[in-house]
# Entry
Amino acid sequence: MIIVDTTRGAHDVIGEMDRPSAKEMIFDNAIYIHRGTQYVVTNLDLENRRCYVEQTDVNYFTDALVKRDIKVLEIDERTAAAGCEIVVGDILVRSQVAKFKKLRYQTHENVGYGEISLPEEEMHTRAVVLVFSEGSRAGTAVESLDATEIGPALSRIGTLVRNVAPVFLLCDPRDIGVAERVRDPHFEAAALYVYDSYPGGSGLSEAFLTRIDAILAASLDLLRGCPCSEGCPSCVGPRDPEEEIDGNPKEAVDHFLAGWLEEASG
Ligand SMILES: [Zn+2]
# Structure
């Protein structure tokens, strides 16, 4: 995807983005930052792989809300680690972006929504799945939550893991995708998928499995060491008034993760 700046009648190529990164970052009206300058996407021409942008100075950035459908294609390894059942294998990720959020810089406060019209994308890749199976320590931690809290708690654990894992995997946060399932149809339990954002995978799922204990322990450390009071973009994500967690989301995740990990180590 070639990025073309058309500010004040110009026609300058300012950058290039590979398709996996582009699909969730670039869409009509998306805010695109390039070398400290802010641009708005005025026209996304998928057919010719051109994205036309113009300079802007709005006080927000955009974040696509992606609906992901995951299908397990093949399981290569099943093991137990970190108090849960771990599965490594091939998955098919279908993603559809239909809406985006406008988030204020720094606070990540939601200041509006917009529509996106893009075709569905399919990707065959590798994943490591943390299955919170019944009877496992992670499964017991899930069962201790109210039914309505399971989704938000898993989603926030996903945010936390996505913030922490790149340090251990030596990758960019965009190189991994995370998706939570309150009740996964394949495993018939709550599950957290961590998958490679590049078709075919590049070894990140396997690397994640070898470092899983360290990644989860560092996740709890990051959460507890974060100076925010109720969650922020650097840890479990900012507070969201539409979410179903009663009280402080950071405390809820701390409680859940500590229950899962302390039982695992004891
Ligand atoms: Zn924080």
User: Anything to note?
Assistant: The chain has a mean pLDDT of 91. The first strand starts at residue 2 and ends at 5. The first helix runs from residue 19 to 25. The chain is about 30% helix and 40% strand.
